[in-house]
Structures
1.
Amino acid sequence: MIINPIGIMVDSLRLGLRDGLKKSKELGADGVQIYAVSGEMDPANLTPQARKELRAYIASLDLQISALCGDLGGHGFQDQTVNAEKIEKSKRILDLAVELGSNVVTTHIGVVPEDRGSAIYETMLQACEELGVYASSLGAYFAVETGPETSAHLKSFLDNLSTKGVSVNFDPANMVMVTGDDPVQGVYTLKDYIVHTHVKDGIRLRQVDPREVYGSLGFKPMSHEDIAEAATSGSSYRELALGEGHVDFGRYFQALQDIGYKGYLTIEREVGEQPEADIASAIAFINTFK
């Protein structure tokens, strides 16, 4: 029996920020996750007054921010030549999250190489160390989204960092769709790092190199839009409505309870022509486990 609060990725509703916030409340959410990379939610575009007004508006709806999304796309933090700029922007997104009452920013860091001695592995480690130290200084987290690598490999990478300021946003569907990893076992493997979760479902159609999905140096850089498009019509994997894919949500939710996770179950719907209806159905689906 789950007791976690339910969140909605506001951008999944495709209604704009204010209307999306209102609709999230109408649908019964406890909290929301918001993209904060570009447009009106880009930290550079939000004055101190605008931040206060936005926080007050969200509070007036009796909502909380479960997390901001700070995914900067491209090759994650694999490219040392652009990391200084990306790290700086990531810090500003985390500052914004804290100002708005959240301590989590979710992101993709790039596919962690299998070769722990590679230059890319070391570059990613250095970037995440800096981000993690900064997050810890604020009592906050950069939460790496699961999917590009197995849970065991991600854990071994995170274990190299000096703090838990870089932790995990657990997305079970990404694991099912891309690596074929077991999300239930993944919860137990990553139990010390999970600070936020996505609720999403899907199937894997064929084995695929995660670098072709998420981008990697030497591969085409992937955007959030590219990944969503592949989840709709791609030949490798398909995002589906909750309960229609291969995530065993009964066992998955039980695993989250077993490790004592009390944070958000945030619904992300990246595909489909009826996002509002799909998200309403997702809430109803989650509530069957309460």
2.
Amino acid sequence: MATFIDIGDPADPRLADYVSLRDVNLRKSLEAEHGLFIAEGAKVIRRACEAGYPPRSFLLAPRWIDGLRDLFDGLDVEVFVVSEALAEQVTGFHVHRGALASMCRQIRWSAADLMEARRLVVCEDIVDHTNVGAIIRCAAGIGWDGVLLAPRAADPLYRRAIKTSMGTVFQLPWARLDDWAGGLHELRDYGFTVAAMALSDDSVSLDEFAADLRHNPRKVALLMGTEGTGLSAHWISQADVVVRIPMAGGVDSLNVAAAAAVACYELREADQPFGVRGQSSGYK
């Protein structure tokens, strides 16, 4: 059974998993070393548990205990009960949802597992965690099969990415490419048309490419570039087609997550109901 422990000292060593959640560099090293990630908010905690990620511990303000009590049944886990003021001292920010959980990190999919998919978003060096979370959320919501990440892209299991994704990082298959330089060749070998979202002289409009896909259905891997500079010249050169979103009002581009949402919607397969693929647990 779960053990409920009242804690009043922010320096209590049992709270080590929750220290300085806003310090990205510290969290990267701590979470990798101890194989954990942090779920924030009752809804996200529930989704992580229901997806099968084992909890290490919970950090809860008293008002959240009853709403999550069913999750504790049969778990041999510590539930640290703290005031919201103490939670803020430990984490370094106001935990307005009053509920955190330290979860065991698991790598559930490899790039090879996703090669039988029909629709993939491929993120090159997108370093903002909220953008990665938002892209995963839109891919899941619009019915795409998964997300591939270049080696330097942000961690989908970082707290802010999880929060922005509303927990869809637990349901949509995602994996990292091992080879940034040559990884796109593998996509082509598995029958994907590799489409780069970029501004270039030889680009075609998104609606033109979408019309071509409706006429000639095929697998698509959609490349999205890093904030600011966009896709590298190396990745653009390996694409089968370069695609742009037609813009107006003197605006040349959208935020990468917004652009991904527009492109995912336009390039979805017409015969695929929303959410079906997003509920998949993988391709193993």
3.
Amino acid sequence: MRTETAAIEGIVAITPPRFGDHRGYFSEVFKDAWFRENVADVMFIQDNESLSAQAGTVRGLHFQIPPFAQGKLVRCLAGRIMDVVVDIREGSPSFGKWLSQELSPETGKQLWIPAGFAHGFVTIEPNSVISYKVTAPYSPQHDRGIAWNDPMIGIRWPFDEREMVSSDKDKTLPRLADLPSHFSYSAQQPKD
């Protein structure tokens, strides 16, 4: 598997090799021992999947707070997305900065997002299916987020904001400036 470290510490893009012939291809998309040795020594406990029917559907920016903070390994099974992460670790040199990766089945690229980051995506094509492994179960009491259109963060989405579709919940998320601190950069672990 090929890894690429991102401009923000902790984020890793992973591209599994594909072995193809006239029938198509085969790829090992996840190997626990390899992941623990080369990316992060974590245990995934749940796999999630979502379908977004319309291009321009934005989901996020989401995260969970301790003790249910989640790391995520994200890939796109159908369609195409712009996957986005925002550093929300207090004291981080990249606090409030964002980066994006295009994910699609054609490339097979995956994105590792550790706890301490807000995560979201927008669908570039209709009927996009996203699959992601998480390191903690979903907990409604620990579920948080920040506004995907926060001007302080300034994410450059591929659609005009008026064309984007989001949930009622995501439309009410706070801005980064109004977010309490939940993660610390210096300790490299979520705060208690």
4.
Amino acid sequence: MTKVFQPDFRPAATRTAPPASAAPEASITKADTQDYFTEVADDYRAWSPSYNMHFGFWRLGLNPLRREGMLVEMNRAVGRALKLDQPRPAHQSAERRCVVDLGCGAGATARTLVGDDPSLFAVTVTNVAVQNRIALRLDAGAGVADRVAHIEADYTRTGLPTAQADGAWAVESACYASGTAKADFVREAARLLKPGARLAVIDGFLLREKPGRSAGWLHRLWADSWAVPTLAVRDDFVAALRDHGFDDIEVRSLRWRVAPSALHIPVLATRFALAELWKARGRLSPWRRKHIVASYCALVLGLFWRDFDYCMVTARRSD
């Protein structure tokens, strides 16, 4: 089982190139994305001291005014979607299971899941070195450093062995892959998962390839500000899952589940912007300014129901 944590970065000469995007993308590169996350790494602490770099999941019993609780609940929603809590055969009950976070940020989802389940070992993948440094510090504080491994790699070409993962997820990270189908991301997830293992993707999705004029403009502003090539088109993404050997595909809208945490944005973003502008004497770097702009855009984009939704997509790697 341990071999899953031994990346192999051989040249990908035998891999096929991902198909071209069905819709035009802005010229956001992987280097742009790395620069963005490197530059704003500390800024995410204002949203979550534990570096939960995503929206929260509200359910009955959670206080909608307490953002961190909802953010952690989103992590647990991932675990439920992967069905990691289901009983296992007796001969497998003592075996450690390996799960993979594709585009982990600072590893918050992995920390939650391995903290809840001693049988899990998590590998997180990010191409942003500073995020792994933050993750290592937080792992130690959470007491899970011996059960999480962080690798610096492109999540569409991780170098991890084939068919060794018992589950994989991407929380607000699949959007950073290319194209409206995110086929390169889906292909790698399919390669990593064992037959019968599950994938969970939580992200924003376009509901049609060509959104309305206002929604299209807002999507482009948001995407450029957060260094995203384009959101996936929901139907294209589902088709890519089928094409790469997934079945039991389910798309669930989380629009109302994330709304309470999204409503924290105006006050938090405004307070953060004013404080940082004051400290920097009105001079923020371009990516830090864009980060603030994107925060407001994310809230407004959610109002375009015909063009956009925030979904959980789950799928099973076919046998």
